[in-house]
Specification:
about 375 residues; alpha/beta; Rossmann fold; seven-stranded mixed beta sheet; two-stranded antiparallel ribbon; flat
């Protein structure tokens, strides 16, 4: 019986590729939990790998580190400090996008396509007869020639106006988005990690807008005791602090940013556990109450939601807890704003329960 040897297949190498892929996934998750601290993530990964027999004489954490350096996802400076590269940051965003938004269907939440077809935007496969004013850049060459051949035959190709067909197009409305990320202490309270899934959603949204809607603008605002805008590149390094939750300040800063935007559509995405616990007084002092839902803080926050609605700015809330009292607040907040809300436990970010107060998710910019 003949023996076959597959020279292109190395079982050890094949197994190593699977191992590297799995280690990369765990490493990326640890990066989010350690706020982008590569050295700390590698240290924890080494402990996990040794405990489960992944690292040993044949393959060690140093081998994995060299793999990351060869892939140029991490780099070491002259002082020996290791950090993420821009490629490593992009990999975090891409992985988050694949994990969370990979199942988005065309026309689903986040799609900016308007219902009408017309010139501009994205070319469609459908065609129609040419009309005066249509751009020749939209000409369907094969369809036009086919019509001419069918009319006059192959011996006398004579293209007339009646033969010409052009592609339909679909207008895409550009959109300005402000991403509000809650960095208050409650996002890690009682040992429940809510900030890591929040950052995953933030990274995924960033990559989605950058790759699918490059004409959109995206701004990130962190809100704790106060609110501040941060660069998109800083998302992997975001962490919580000893802060209360000033949702009102976040919404106000988001409105200021969106007032300056040139895009026709404007929206706010908010990632939070849903409990506002502080507001800023007119004199700049903070009024805090971390116990329960303070009526004054709640009312001021709802007033800001209503102001966003009056400005035509919907707020989509990604709610990272299922505590009934906080869910009820977000439902009230969403109804006042006429926005949308997605409810999910921290360990099931992808399993949002959609509460949608807007029947028509698409609107045309005129």
């Amino acid at each position: 019986m003949p023996a076959w040897r597959y020279s292109e297949f190395d079982p050890l190498e094949s197994g190593l590729k699977d191992l590297l892929r799995q280690l990369q996934e765990v490493f990326n998750d640890l990066l989010l939990q350690t706020n982008g601290d590569v050295a700390e993530a590698l240290r924890i990964l080494d402990q996990i790998g040794r405990r489960h027999g992944v690292f040993g004489d044949r393959f060690s954490i140093d081998d994995f580190r060299r793999f990351l350096e060869d892939q140029r996802t991490i780099a070491t400076d002259r002082r020996g400090r290791v950090s993420l590269t821009s490629k490593g940051e992009r990999l975090l965003r891409t992985e988050s996008l694949d994990a969370i938004f990979g199942s988005l269907e065309q026309g689903g939440p986040g799609d900016h396509r308007v219902p009408a077809a017309g010139e501009g935007g994205e070319r469609l496969p459908e065609t129609r007869p040419w009309a005066f004013g249509d751009s020749l850049s939209l000409l369907d060459a094969s369809g036009t020639v086919h019509n001419a051949l069918r009319r006059a035959g192959i011996d006398a190709i004579d293209i007339t106006e009646e033969d010409m067909r052009v592609h339909e197009t679909e207008s895409l409305s550009s959109c300005a988005t402000v991403l509000l990320v809650d960095v208050s202490h409650s996002m890690v309270l009682y040992g429940e990690d809510r900030i890591t899934p929040a950052k995953r959603v933030a990274l995924a949204l960033t990559e989605l807008i950058r790759t699918r809607y490059p004409k959109d603008s995206l701004h990130v605002v962190l809100f704790g005791d106060e609110a501040e805008e941060v660069p998109l590149e800083s998302l992997p390094y975001v962490g919580v602090g000893p802060f209360h939750t000033n949702t009102r300040a976040g919404l106000r800063l988001a409105q200021e940013i969106l007032r300056r935007s040139k895009q026709g559509n404007r929206q706010i995405f908010m990632l939070t556990d849903g409990k506002p616990s502080v507001i800023t007084e007119r004199d700049g002092r903070l009024y805090k109450n971390p116990f329960g839902l303070d009526e004054r803080i709640v009312n001021k926050t709802l007033e800001e939601a209503a102001q966003c609605r009056r400005l035509g700015i919907p707020v989509t809330t990604f709610m990272l807890t299922d505590e009934p009292v906080l869910v009820k607040f977000i439902e009230d907040f969403t109804e006042v704003n006429h926005g949308r809300a997605y409810f999910s436990r921290p360990d099931e970010v992808g399993g949002f329960v959609l509460v949608d107060f807007i029947r028509n998710r698409r609107r045309e910019v005129r």
